[in-house]
Structures are given as C-alpha cells and as structure tokens.
Amino acid sequence: MKKKNVIKTMILTATVGCMTVLGGCGGSAPAAETTSAAPASNEAAAEVTAADETLSLAYQYGLSYAPAVIAQSEGLIEKAYEEATGAKLTVNWNQMSSGADINTAIASGDLQAGFMGVGPAVTGVTKGLGYKIFTNLSGQEHGMTSNDPSITGLGDLVGSDKQIALVNIGSFQHIILAKALAENGFDAHALDASIVAMKHPDGMAALESGSVACHLTSSPYIFKERDNGDLHELTEVANAYSADKSFIVGIAAEDLHDNKPAVYKALCDGIQAGMDLINSDPEKAASITCELDGNTLEVELDYMKKGVYSADTKGLFDLASFMYENAFIENDPQSYENLVFDNVKGN
Amino acid sequence: MSEPMLTIKNLTKTYQDSPEQPKILADLNLTVDREEFLCILGPSGCGKTTLLRCIAGFENFEGEILVNGVSRKEPGSDRIMVFQTFEQLFPWKTVEGNITWPLKKTGMTDKTERHRCAMEALAKVKLADYAHYYPHQLSGGMKQRVAIARALALKSEIILMDEPFAALDALTRRELQNELLTLSAAEHRTILFVTHNIQEAVILGTRNIVLQKGGKIIFDEKNTLPKPSTPSSPGFAEVWQRMRDAIYANENAE
Amino acid sequence: MKTSEKASGKTAEHLARIIFLLAVLGIWEYVARARLLGPRSELIFPSLEAIGRAFLRNFSKGYAGNSLWIYIGNSMKLLLTGLLIGNGLAFLLSGIAAVNHTFYSIYNLVISVCDLLPGVALLPVVIVIFGVKSGVIVFLVIHAVLWPMSRSILDGFMAVPMIYVEAGKNIGLRGVGLLFGIYLPASIAYIVSGLKVGWARAWRGLISAEMIFGIASCPGIGLFINQMRTNMNNAEMYATLVVIIIIGVIVQYGILTPIEKNTVKKWGMAR
C-alpha cells in the first residue's frame, strides 16, 4: 500500500507537476510528506467507529471560499469529528489554483475532497472522476461591465470586433455569458471569438486601460467595477445568473462518502458550521478572512454580505443541462441526483 | 637606390595606460629600401614586435611612418602582416576563400581574376591541391604557407612577418625558410622579418638589425653573403658571430 | 578502420537511444495498463493506445470545431513572427552595441535585467501597453529570444580572437565591414547556441503565454492544451504534448542541426 503510494506520488509529481500535487497524499494511507498525525498502525483502518483519520482537501483563493477558509482557521471539521467520535481527525488543506488541478488530483486519489466552481465540478462528475457534490458553498454576484458607451447590451457586441475579457474559455464566466446570450435570443456561442482569457485582476486592468471593451467577472471584482464611474454594466449577464444560485460547491470522493461516513459527516458539518458563522456573525467571519483577502474589515464585511452562503444548491441542474446542451461538457448529467450526494438539498 | 620604401622618423611608443613606464620604442629612426629583406632581432621585450605592429597600423604611436613617402597611421593592405600564430586564417573560409575574400575586399571585382590570383599564389607555396580545404584541416606549416600566399596575392609592397616560423618544428621550418628565400628573390617585395633565430636571419636577410631594450638599433649591417647560404658557407660564421655578440652585449648591458 | 569504428560507435549510440525510448514507453504503458494511479487511472494516465487515438482525434475532430492544425498554424504564425523580429533585433542592437561603447554598457545592463523577467509575469503590463491582440504573444516570443540571443552575440563578439580582427583590419575592413566580415562569422558558435536557447525559450514561452492569455479569435496550441486539461481530456492533452515534442524535434534536427553542421562543425569551430 505504502509502496504503491510512493510510486503514485512519483509518477504524479513527474506528470502533473509538483506544484499541483504539493502536499497531496493518497487513498486511505497517510502521506509521507504532510503533517499527518495518524499513527501508522491505523492506516488500513476504514472503520466507521472511532479511529484517528486524515482528510486531504483542496480549496482555492478568495471570498467565495470563505466557509472553507473559516473551517480551516477555526478547525471546525476537526471539532465536528471529535465531538461525534471522540477521535482525532487531521485535515490537510492544499491551496490550488484551478478546478482542473483539483480534478486531476482527486482523480488520482490524492485528495478526498475539494472546493471549486460548478463548471469544473459538473465536468468532473460527468467525466466519472468518482466524486459528487456534497454541499453548496456560496453564490456570488457576477456581471459584465463595459468602458464603451456605444455598448448598451449584448446585441451591440454580437457581430462586432469588440473584445470581452473573462477568466478562461470554458470557465463558469464563459458559461454564464453563453447563458445570457441564449436567454436574450442569440446563439449561445455567438461571442466565443470575442473572448480573451485573462485572470480577474488582469481583466479589470485591461478594461480600465481600454485594452478590451468588456470584462465579465465575479465578486469582488464586479463590485469594484460597478463603483468605477467610467464603466457601465450590461445587465443581461447579471440577470442570467443571480447571486443566490450555486457558484462554488464542495465535492467529495465517493470512496470517502461510502467508506468513511464519520469523516464525510464531519466534513459536511464543519463546512456547515463555517457557513453558519458567516450568516449569524458576519463581523467575526469577516475578521477571520479579511487579512487573507487583503481587504479592510469594512470592505470584507460588505463583500461578504453580498454573497449567499448556503448548503443548498440552486440552479445547479439547470446549469449542468445548459452546459451539456451547449457542448461545454460531453456527457449528459441526466439527473440532479447524479450530481450530488443524497444529503444535499436543492435543485 | 631610389626613394626608400619605408621611412620611420622619431617613432616613440608608450602604452597609454602606464605613461610612467619606460618607453617601448624611443625615438626610433629607420629607413628600409625597396626589395630589402630586413631581419629584426633582439631580446624579448626589445620592442621588435611592437615596431612591426606600429608599421602595420595596429598601434597608436608618436612620430611618423612613411610608405613611399606617404604617412600611414591606419592598417592597410599595402603592409600585410603574417603573424606567428597558425590561427591567422579565417576558419569560416576555405583556403582559397582566405585569399579571394581579402582580394575582393581590397577592390578586385572580377571573380575569375580573384580565383586566378589565389590559385597562382597557392601554387607558389605548393598548396594548389588544398584550395577547397578548411584551415582546421591543415597542419601548422600549411597554414603559415597560406598566410604567406595571402600576402603574395594581395600584392602588398611590404610584408611584415612576426616570427612566422617560430612555432614550427625544425624540419618544416627549414623547408619554409628555403621557400621564402626563393619567393623573396622572385617577388620583389620588401619584407620585414622579426625573428629570435640568428641563423634564420643570416640565411634570409639582406640586411639585419638588432634592437636593444627601448628600441635602440645597436646593430645594422647589410648581409652580403651570396644566397642561398648555409652555416657552412664562407663568411656565414663571422656574420653569425657579430650578430650574436651584439645581442649578448646588449643583454649584458641590462 | 577509424571511420568504421566511428560509425559503429554512432550505431551503438542510436541503439542506446532507441532502447531508452522504448523503456520509457514501456514504463508508461505498464503504469497505464496496471492502473497504478487508482480507480480513475485511465483518465489521468491514459495508455499509449488511448493517446494514439486521441492524437488522431485532435487532428480530425479537434476542439470547438477546429482541428489541431488550425491551432498549430496560429501558434506557428505568431512564433515565426516573434522569432524573426526577436533575432533581427538581437543582431541589430548587438551590432550597435559592438561599435558604440556607451550603448554597449547600457544594453548590457538591459539584457541582464530583462533576461531575468519571466515573460508571463509581464503579461499585465504588456496588455496595458499593447492592448489585447495576438501581438501580445508575439511580444512575449520576442522577449524570450531577444535577450539570450543578444547575450550570446555580445559574448561571441567579446570572444572573437584579436588576430581575426587585426587580419580583417589589415585588409582594410572598418566598422560595419568588420562587423559582418569578421565579428559575425567568428562568433558563429555563440550565435548557434544562442539560436538554440532562444528557440527553446520562445517555444515554451509561447505555449505558456497561450495557456494563460487565450485569444479566442486566434487560438493556439497552448489554448488547446488548456481546454483539454479543463475538460479532463488528458489523453488529448498528452497527445498535444507529443505534437509539441514532434515540432521541437523537427526544428532541432531539420533546422538547427544542419545550421550547426554547415557552420560550426564544418569550420572546425566547435568548442
């Protein structure tokens, strides 16, 4: 078991690149290189009852991941596990830069759970990576602003050579652009050739400097752009996907759900506790995350209140169906139940 | 004799970065006649190479150097240099290219004429069969021959040779000395030949000079031995002895 | 005798390479077939056969209605433009630096500083200055080749033996004549190594830039790889990496090696 893991780690390091799997560790065995506290004698144990366990998680950066960040800094998952079983759970948090990286790591068995946008999550589930959504994490505001007064709606962009910056082709932001187009009577891919893939801050800089005509982005960049008097918003995009709909979700390996229900439950409860803190005491929640996000407490609190943090999904299956119908994914999601574990409520 | 080929007046050379250093060459005066084969000897550091480099135009100097009565300060193909190192040929050109390209650069526009000149010069140094070789495929002696052929083809009136045979083995050296002797008799060039080797000077030179440190000429003598001469030729030993004494006296004076 | 020995040495070398390659492929295939990477092994570590099929699919089906040829074509267009401008600038600026001492000292400093900056990190600045066009990618390719090439050329100029310069001056060459007639051919070994480094950096820089900064109207290989990765189509992604290697090998053995053979090696200037 351990030997196999070493081989796996070596191969992965060589192929995926060490950055993406840094700190990753596989299966039910403790990782050689992480801060595992589980004694070696317990490594093969997959019992439901009180055993010390390890859990490897991946998350990304930003306010959308606030419940996970809070769960990490407050040790909420560990606490939930200890309260339920009396045993110790060691959680390894890995920060990764994209849903694609997390997908690769989870497919290899080096991660048991992670947090990512609904786009890559739906891709991963329908690709058969062996995981499902165990919770909704947050909904955020999205929108598209422009620096060109002659552009007042999507119709002004279709057929023009004006460029739209967004984070990546095939990304969530691309999908809601397609959705907004479809809802307004255009072809969903009518603006594909206008897209320029740029990270959120680069896209904002490009928009402000006039290098691109439009920028489709999410919280908190959309707030900054809305505050900029030189820019105006094309409301079709914001209307196509409101802040209460699922944006970031938590995913967990089926293996974890099926074989380690106690750990799985602690994961769900810990994240729930993080969301509860945000909803009941946003000041405290913001004080935990503001430094990480590089905002003042006031700004962080303001942004946080604009987000929707709930465990129930909303609009998830609609979005997945839209993705399939418009060739963003290859496999039909078929049903809501295919996407989520049985404890998840919503649509 | 007609007007001198080369006139050097009050030549003084100091290295710029060390003005306090003693002068390499101080107030040197020298006249070289047309078709003279002047051998320049002297101990290491006496300035003989520097003298040649000043004439070639590679160094800044005070004083005046006149070629055919015209002052020269910059390098030019009328005074071609044959260096001691074998690496003086352009490695990116063939043996023939090493001659035709300089010909082109010095104004010979006709390609067939360049080829003819190069082949003629190569034939003179017995390398006609090697025209298409690259320098790295040649031996040291062959490279020096090509360098000499280059100087011949360029029709330079003055050929400056800085110990061109010093790095060769004794046998090749003797061979090349003989060839050079034949060529110098046939080609009507003025040759300034720096050497360490007294015997070489006695065999080749029609006039020999010895420099002292600081570039003072302490020996200047026409070599009237009939050519070709060998160490067993009558009078050879005497000339050899006189030059050796001059060099030694010079060294003892140090 | 000697040549046949040399030839058999060459054959042994080739044989060793082939064995090494087969061993690597064998290990790969074993890892894939034995599903060493867990239950989803075939998704993240596809077999050679799957990669082979994906290779063909890349060229027949491609992505978003475009065959991989289109992406390769776009990338190559940008790459060649960048290489041409980059190398041209390197020769021009190094040439000026060779004849003007003040310019040399400034340019030397500029090279030292710029060579350290990863092109991708410059993206935001470049976008603000040049706008969002495929020219940004060309700029990054230029950035990737200009500095190592200039460094190589200047180092090459510095290392030109004085004897060639004097031999050149002796036949009356001055300034530009000396630059083209002596300095350039005499520093060919440096220039060729500069070309090699520059090409590798440009090729890599192009793909990483395309992966980060994708222009949908001019999609390149990097964007293709990124899409395959995003969609978890790893077989297609590896197949595209194979394409990148093939192009690299073609350039190495079809262009750079012949250049080296016909200059440095032919002239006996290899170091």
Describe it for me?
The complex is a heterotrimer of chains A (347), B (254) and C (271). Chain A is α/β, with parallel strands linked by helices. Chain A has two domains: 233 residues, Periplasmic binding protein-like II (D-Maltodextrin-Binding Protein, domain 2); 99 residues, Periplasmic binding protein-like II (D-Maltodextrin-Binding Protein, domain 2), CATH 3.40.190.10. Chain A contains 17 helices and ten strands. In chain A, the strands form two sheets. Chain A has a five-stranded mixed β-sheet with strand order 2-1-3-10-4, sandwiched between helices. A five-stranded mixed β-sheet of chain A has the order 7-6-8-5-9, sandwiched between helices. Chain B has seven helices and ten strands. Chain B has two domains: 146 residues, Rossmann fold (3-Layer(aba) Sandwich); 68 residues, no CATH class. With 271 residues, chain C is an all-alpha fold. Chain C folds into two domains: 45 residues, no CATH class; 201 residues, MetI-like (MetI-like fold, Orthogonal Bundle), CATH 1.10.3720.10. Chain C contains twelve helices and one strand; from the N terminus they run H-H-H-H-H-H-H-H-H-H-E-H-H. In chain C, helix 8 packs antiparallel against helix 9. The chains are: A alpha/beta (347), B alpha/beta (254), C mainly alpha (271). Chains A and C meet through helix 1, helix 5, helix 6, strand 7 and helix 9 of A and helix 6, strand 1 and helix 11 of C.
Poorly predicted residue ranges of chain A:
15-48
By CATH, the architecture of the largest domain in chain B is named 3-Layer(aba) Sandwich
Please state the oligomeric state of the protein chains shown. heterotrimer
Helical percent range of chain B?
25-40%
What sort of overall outline of chain A do the alpha carbons produce when their principal axes are compared? globular
Strand fraction of chain A: 5-15%
Q: Count of DSSP helices of chain A? A: 17
CATH architecture of the largest domain in chain A: 3-Layer(aba) Sandwich
Sheet with most strands: strand arrangement of chain B:
6-7-8-3-9-10
> What would the average pLDDT of chain A be, to the nearest integer?
85
Tell me the domain tally of chain A. Answer: 2
In CATH, what is the homologous superfamily of the largest domain in chain B? P-loop containing nucleotide triphosphate hydrolases
Helix content of chain A: 40-55%
| Class derived from helix and strand content of chain B | alpha/beta
The CATH class of the largest domain in chain B turns out to be: Alpha Beta
- Taken from the alpha-carbon principal axes, the silhouette of chain B is globular
